[in-house]
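Students often ask what a 'structure token' actually looks like in practice. Rather than answer in the abstract, let us consider Centromere protein X, a protein of 72 residues. Its sequence is given first.
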Amino acid sequence: TNLNSGSTLWSLCGSSLLVGYVYDALSCALNSLEPCVTEAAARGARQAETEDLTKVEVEHVEKVLPQLLLDF
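Now compare that with the structural description of the same chain:
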């Protein structure tokens, strides 16, 4: 592959068009993941509350993760 300045790939990678696509892709991924992360935190908090604890640990989120993945 020739990546000189006249190549289509090279001009695309050097342009702001690619930056716009990357920004759009990251924004879309964030918008898709945000509800899942919020729900995981809420379910982890409920799990900790069920165990009469006031602090949510990773273990609480791990306990609810299988059902969370099935729900999404």
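One point worth highlighting: Residues 8-71 form one domain. Ask yourself how you might have guessed this from the sequence alone, and why that guess would often be unreliable.
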